[in-house]
Structure formats: C-alpha cells, structure tokens
Amino acid sequence: MKFQYKEDHPFEYRKKEGEKIRKKYPDRVPVIVEKAPKARVPDLDKRKYLVPSDLTVGQFYFLIRKRIHLRPEDALFFFVNNTIPPTSATMGQLITTRRTIFSMWPTVMRVSMASEQQSPRHAGEMD
C-alpha cells in the first residue's frame, strides 16, 4: 500500500520535520494516519497527530474512533509496518521498536485504517 503523505513529501522534508517536532516535543510521538484505500470508514479531518508517548494504542483507537464518529459495533484496525500493534503498547514503545528494527531515526509512524469489511491481512500491505 502506498502512503500519500510519503509520496507528497520527499524523505529529507519528512526527516527534517520529524526531527524538529521530536526536538520541540520530546515526550510526544508524531503519527501520520491514513485510511487504507478500500476501507469503508469515514475520512479523517486531519492526518497528522502529535500524541503523548505514554498514550496506549487502545487509547489512540478511541481517539480516532471518536474523530470519525464510528459506531461501537464497527471494527477499526490499525497497521504499523503490516502488523496490528497490541492495544496495550504505548505509542512511545511502537516508535522505539521501529527505530530498533530499521536502525534509523523514524520521522513519523504511518498507520493505516481499515474497516471490518476489509480483510485485515490485505488492508495494511505496503509497497
């Protein structure tokens, strides 16, 4: 799956922006949220979020569900690197794990949204 934000902004811009944000707000995590192409969920009013590093993925789910006015019976899946993160993990843990995996400074975390109607296996696939 291609990420629109990544296509719209070159790597150097994203790196510079991420470093600036992390320097100004060291206790926060910059997150880019993009809807999976075939997801049947409403569009978000914004895609950039700056969240506390101790915010859990479960709390972030709640925040996004509230922003898109998703009904309680509707499912929502987040994907980080083609994986559904545990709801008990903190956003800070996710970015630390990502930094270890890629051995580079992550500028942003990209999260894909997919609805229950879409297969979670295919919703988070990236190119």
UniProtKB/TrEMBL annotation:
The family database entries (InterPro entries) matched by this protein are listed as:
Atg8-like, Ubiquitin-like_domsf
Q: What is its main location?
A: membrane
The protein, known as: GABA type A receptor associated protein like 1
Family annotation (Pfam families): ATG8
Keywords (alphabetical) are: Autophagy, Lipoprotein, Membrane
- Does the keyword field hold Lipoprotein? yes
Which family does the record claim for this protein?
Belongs to the ATG8 family.
Coiled coil spans: none
GO CC annotation terms, alphabetical: membrane
In which compartments does the protein localize?
A: Membrane
What organism does the record attribute this protein to?
Answer: Gallus gallus
Q: What biological-process terms (Gene Ontology) are attached? A: autophagy
Top-rank taxon of the source lineage equals Eukaryota
